[in-house]
Sequence to fold (371 residues):
Amino acid sequence: MKPDPLRGVKGLMRGDLLGLEGYQPIVPLEALSEEVNLPPDKLIKLDGNENPYGCSPRVQRALASYPLYHIYPDPEQREVRRALQGYVGVDEKHIVAGSGSDELIDLVLRLFVEPGDRVINCVPTFGMYPFSTELCGGEVVSVLRDRAYAIDVAAIKEAIDEKTKLVFIASPNNPTGNVAPERDILELVEAGIVVVVDEAYYEFSGVTVAPLVPQHENLIVLRSFSKWAGLAGLRIGYGIFPTLIAEQILKIKQPYNVNLAAQLAVKESLEDLEHLQASVKAILAERERLFAQLKRLKFLKPFPSQANFIFCAVVEGNAERIHQGLKQKGIFVRHFDTPLLRNSLRISVGRPEHTDALMEALSEVGGKRSG
Ligand SMILES: *Cc1c(COP(=O)(O)O)cnc(C)c1O
Fold:
């Protein structure tokens, strides 16, 4: 078939994708640095939930001296999956690694969702779920969380119909920081659709349903090395799947989806747990200190968090103005002003000196009268 000259190449593209809004990209460190005219090492980046202590030094060393980058990585990820089996406490046949847990979100949707199928999203939450659903031609059904941002199990069950394939539950939720109770998750598993529990922040919450996966055919847990292990830039996450789903995900994924450097980094990280857990502990202690200080500011309402960030409603003044004011001082936080997240900020937990700089800046920026 020849392209219709009147419609051109655009006419050959998927119409549903042309209408997509796309994922809001983050601004890279170098661009931020140029924008505020400060060197990258002077910036305080509290907008990406990244680990302020970096990755394990064992990762740095192993990657610098690895001799076999010219050989393709193992498509079956044997060593990585075996290493993860010990860490997760679930047999390796349930585990598949991805290029970040973002890739696993996409693979799960590809496995289950055909055009016209429905996916339930518990909003407000992480933006990748609707993005990847729409890429697959699925329809996103948004179900509101309650005032404390807890998932509304009754409303989710109410929303399920014959076209519903799957529900996403981030626990802890991004950006609100709260976990979903196990009984809620199990109630949804009983409802028979696929329940995907995204535990990207598990190491900060200590709450998981991973041990329940082998007993259910429709429960999936996703995890990441981006946040707790400081490997966001290397792109490595994994899923814990019922056997049947794990087999299919292994089959449909790109053979070399996880690069060698990322595979090496996982193995080295898991051999340096003591170091990484010390970073996590420092972040947890700092989260509590940051929360106490934010709470003292009368223009902010911080929400309790079980992750490495704190969500704040701006109750007096304007979040965008605070966001801009902090930015001028080289401090970057995430700002939201959407119908479901009005006038609010998400602040990643940094090092103690980052908290100190942030609090000083907030007292200057937030104290002023606002529009
Ligand atoms: C950061 C984040 C991810 C992405 O993890 P990657 O492994 O870096 O792709 C997934 N889910 C949630 C809720 C996140 O906040």
Residues 49, 100-102, 126, 170, 174, 198, 200, 224, 226, 232, 237 surround pyridoxal-5'-phosphate (CB under 6 Å).
